[in-house]
Amino acid sequence: MSGKRRMKAGMLRKIEGSLFIAPWIIGFLAFMAYPLGYSFYMSFNNVRIVATGIKVEYQGLNHYKYILFENGYLLYNLLFPFLRQALLMLPVIVVFALLVAVMLNQNFRGRMLFRSIFFLPVIFTTGQVVQEFISQGKGDLGFLTRYNISDVITQNLNPVWASPIISIMESFVLVLWYSGVQILIFLAGRQTISNSVYEAARIDGASPWDTFWKITLPGMMPFVLLNLIYTTVDLFTFPTNPILMQMTMSNSGLSSAIAWIYFGIIFIFLGTVFWLFSRITRTSRA
Fold this sequence. Notes:
Keywords: Cell membrane, Membrane, Sugar transport, Transmembrane, Transmembrane helix, Transport. Residues 79-286 form the ABC transmembrane type-1 domain. It is a multi-pass membrane protein. Its main location: membrane. The chain is built from 14 helices and two strands, in the order αββααααααααααααα. It has 286 residues and is mostly helical. The chain folds into two domains: 4-58, no CATH class; 63-125 and 178-285, MetI-like (MetI-like fold). The two termini are 41 Å apart. α1 (2-42) runs antiparallel to α14 (252-285) and α3 (73-104) runs antiparallel to α12.
């Protein structure tokens, strides 16, 4: 009898899970599957809009060869520096969001106001707003110019890494504005850790520093991975992304090929993040 009940409970969980994911599947099939498939089809063709309609000329892999081998300016001179910048921005945003979430989880007066303040940029900072701030030179740290820190970085680091580091520091405030959702995720994750664990640790004489490294951080690791994934995807739509700036070209087939190459790069980047995260967590457990 107990076996049948277990099977029934397992079936109910599967049905509940299917019902929760059903709206996404229906929305994907209805609104995204065809555009994705059509863009993949266009990447093998020259697509032009003419007076009589859409003209399609089959090109095979010519677009991919052109982007990867014949004209590598977009990938190697523009995209790769942006990827190095994103690689540096990723830990900055996640670590900042984690520390702010831990502080905002404390019981103090006005914490709801501070939570709202940290989330407000998510609502107001659209891509155009951020681009306007960057073009006006806003969002940087004032002491960089005052103490010529950019010159120090340029003189002491390889230009390959000096340029993205300086770029991040010149828009550091804007980078931190991208941490609102991550802060909320970490706040929700912090609520999953029972306060009784912290009370037991305090009774045993553990300091706040010890409880952070032995209780808070291990308990938040699943949410760290979630925020790494979310931040990676979010950064790849950053307004300064050179790929997004190239999507206005007249040849839709070439634009589609760029988009699918970009998708492959994002997939590899996410795979690298998963691999590094698994290695780090495995080492910490050992």
